[in-house]
């Protein structure tokens, strides 16, 4: 098992991305998120994703030197056209404008269009909480999930993320979850290991419940939480798709056309400034949120992201853990 | 079984509320929502709620003639102080300002404070979609639900509602669900009928899974969808509680102090104007949303609220259905 410093992780990622033709600005934005994922032991969004960056580029499905363009369609909306690049740089281009608008008007939205997407949303939500804002983010993906009561893929795994700043704590309250019962990667992992998946994860091509990972990957995944999770997935299709003049998961999958690249679609982020909402009682309001968190911890419930923050502290002390095979394979990209 | 006209339903509700001391304006706003609930055969939020209105008033937990006051803490936020009245009149007072702000800035928020709450959120969301806006609403309730991994009540049943306007369809796309596994009323119904509840609805006072409705009512309900539903419930506590300088579900239950009145707390509503988001492609974007809905229907999935809209058509044709016992009991309130 290799433990590498943050600097080494940055350097490794940057070298790989630049060598394959990504521009300096795209490289830096991508590196920020994959190193953050690796640091937090969120391996599915860590350095491992560099393979996807390269294969998506090789498939001609991402613009390696895209420069996002920033538009302001209204006083409280900022729209960033990623121009076919990965989402990360587009987010970074839009964030200062989102911040300014949220702080001026109390609430604001950032719509990212025409981006290639693989980023975990918590990275972006954390950047929003660092500005003292409450954030909500979501995006479609590829049509892999059947609506509750249906039998065919229609929705994406459609993640939803939320963040609450904690002025007196290093770590914000953040959750980031797929509205599918599990991540698609979990089913792929079971297939590779030839293990049955639990009931409730998916259905086969005939629409019947199945525990065969292969059958579910060729059938449909299921939303979490029955009709409620399904409704949330539909909401995300709408507000991060047609609302912002961008693709649904079905349209994104059609665009992919079998290339198996990272999905291409939009993303919606809403930011709210507590200073405008809390009616001058900021300190008391933030303290009452802490009472809620303590009420969770006192009865043995975890705060979301707690595991990630514990991993971050480990990485800070021991270096960033990179499994040997991953490290070896990454070197092959050089 | 009685079938009464909409006029009769209005007249019955108004007479009861006025006779018990509610002001004309409070009465009209309350009547609108309980008749809408009865009309849509959403019985838990129909005329039946008039008993709660009266008992909450008798318990001294609602101001019968409260006049909401409207504040504008920032350009895109409207805050309505219900001044201890029911939420409905406060919502009606805030809606025109929310509409104007959303249409001017693209996104806006309405925070309702210090309201007594029993309204189904879909009534409000539908009013928002009728203005051509996309809406999202949520509120805490009373601390009845344990967080995932915990064992004690902390969260409310915290409903979340969303609406999408459909320019060429009479009925908008709307969902409105509790973030608890089921409504508290469903467990109370099982208790009355001395039936066991399904696993997953709740735990007893020792934190153990239970199918005994009495034990769960004295223990804790569970969120829907495990840690994801639990995270959503926490988000609603935060954004419709401390964010808007109002009570969490735990604080609301403490305020109730055993009187069993309707909960007293706040509510947050976010409205977005598609015209500002859709980059001039409104028609195509709304059409693509319809493709999504058709994709759901084509595979046998329902649209949320479909059952309610079917009931509404029945009520339009046959009159509003009021079960005999309910009709009889309501007459006793006169």
Could you explain how this protein is built, in words?
Chains A, B: Keywords: Oxidoreductase. Chains A, B: Belongs to the LDH2/MDH2 oxidoreductase family. Chains A, B: InterPro entries: Mal/L-sulf/L-lact_DH-like_ah, Mal/L-sulf/L-lact_DH-like_NADP, Mal/L-sulfo/L-lacto_DH-like_sf, Malate/L-lactate_DH-like. Chains A, B: This is Malate/lactate/ureidoglycolate dehydrogenase, LDH2 family. Chains A, B: GO terms for molecular function: oxidoreductase activity. Two copies of one chain form a homodimer. With 334 residues, chain A is of the alpha+beta class. Chain A has one domain: Malate/L-lactate/L-sulpholactate dehydrogenase, NADPH binding domain (Ribosomal Protein S8, Chain: A, domain 1). In chain A, 44% of the residues lie in helices and 17% in strands. Chain A is built from 13 helices and eleven strands. In chain A, strands 2-3-4-10-5-6-7 form a seven-stranded mixed β-sheet, with helices on both faces. In chain A, a hairpin with a 2-residue loop joins strand 2 (69-74) and strand 3 (77-81). The longest helix of chain A has 19 residues, at 87-105. Chain A is globular, with a radius of gyration of 20 Å. Chain A starts with a strand and ends with a helix. The model of chain A has no long low-confidence stretch (mean pLDDT 96). Chains A and B meet through strand 4, strand 7, helix 8, helix 10 and helix 11 of A and strand 4, strand 7, helix 8, helix 10 and helix 11 of B.
């Amino acid at each position: 098992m290799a433990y590498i410093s943050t600097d080494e992780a940055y350097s490794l990622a940057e070298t790989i991305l630049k060598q394959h033709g990504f521009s300096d600005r795209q490289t830096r934005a991508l590196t920020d998120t994959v190193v953050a994922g690796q640091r937090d032991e969120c391996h599915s969004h860590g350095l491992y994703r560099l393979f996807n960056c390269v294969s998506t580029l090789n498939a001609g499905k991402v613009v390696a030197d895209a420069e996002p363009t920033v538009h302001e369609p209204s006083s409280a909306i900022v729209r960033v056209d990623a121009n076919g690049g990965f989402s990360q740089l587009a987010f970074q281009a839009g964030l200062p404008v989102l911040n300014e608008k949220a702080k001026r008007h109390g609430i604001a939205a950032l719509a990212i269009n025409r981006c290639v997407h693989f980023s975990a949303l918590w990275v972006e939500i954390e950047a929003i909480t660092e500005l003292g804002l409450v954030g909500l983010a979501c995006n479609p993906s590829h049509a892999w999930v059947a609506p509750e009561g249906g039998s065919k893929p229609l929705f994406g795994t459609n993640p939803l993320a939320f963040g609450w700043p904690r002025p007196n704590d290093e770590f914000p309250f953040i959750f980031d979850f797929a509205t599918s019962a599990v991540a698609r990667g979990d089913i792929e992992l079971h297939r590779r290991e030839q293990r049955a998946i639990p009931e409730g994860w998916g259905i086969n091509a005939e629409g019947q419940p199945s525990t065969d990972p292969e059958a579910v990957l060729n059938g449909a995944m299921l939303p979490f939480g029955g009709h409620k999770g399904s409704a949330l997935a539909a909401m995300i299709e709408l507000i991060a798709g047609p609302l912002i003049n961008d693709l649904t998961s079905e349209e994104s999958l059609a665009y992919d056309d079998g290339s198996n690249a990272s999905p291409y679609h939009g993303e919606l982020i809403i930011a709210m400034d507590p200073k405008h909402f809390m009616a001058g009682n900021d300190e008391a309001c933030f303290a009452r949120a802490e009472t809620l968190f303590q009420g969770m911890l006192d009865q043995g419930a975890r705060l979301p992201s707690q595991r990630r923050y514990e991993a971050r502290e480990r990485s800070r002390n021991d270096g960033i853990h990179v499994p040997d095979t991953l490290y070896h394979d990454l070197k092959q990209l050089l």
